[in-house]
Q: What sequence folds into this?
């Protein structure tokens, strides 16, 4: 794959990558950074891609790893007093977004990829490197928990 083709394919799926990162990380700047870093790492390791037909899932897997790395970095940071600053999160605190953030990591990953990034069960399984049956089970469990959380 040449760099022009790489750029074209990335530009087509960039909105979906951004939505995925935004749901994982919860903030615009963190999501943009994760997408940019994933795009850079994918370009650098483009020669490692064995099957070009799985480009989207390969890049999504890189993005997921970047999101996890960013979340680990955030856990190590010292929290600041957020009462001093009005944030954009106050404006867009949607019940669904909050409920998704409350899900365990393994369930949140599946929900984000399946319902917000538009991946199929097969693509989700490939991206997360888990069996398809596990994806279906985690989807059912996550949807049940979301239904409980949102009905309260």
A:
């Amino acid at each position: 794959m040449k760099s022009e083709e790489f750029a074209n394919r990335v530009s087509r799926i960039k909105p979906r990558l951004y939505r995925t990162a935004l749901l994982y990380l919860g903030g615009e700047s963190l999501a943009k950074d994760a997408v940019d870093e994933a795009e850079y790492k994918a370009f650098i390791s483009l020669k490692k891609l064995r099957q070009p037909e799985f480009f989207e899932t390969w890049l999504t897997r890189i993005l997921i790893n970047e999101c996890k790395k960013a979340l680990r970095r955030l856990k190590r940071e010292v929290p600041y007093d957020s009462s001093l600053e009005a944030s954009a999160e106050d404006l867009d605190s949607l019940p669904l977004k909050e409920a998704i953030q409350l899900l365990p990591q393994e369930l949140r990953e599946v929900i984000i990829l399946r319902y917000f990034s538009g991946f199929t069960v097969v693509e989700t399984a490939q991206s997360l490197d888990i069996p398809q049956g596990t994806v279906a089970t985690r989807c059912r469990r996550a949807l049940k928990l979301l239904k409980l959380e949102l009905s309260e």
Summary: Residues 3-25 form the longest helix (23 residues). The chain has a mean pLDDT of 82.
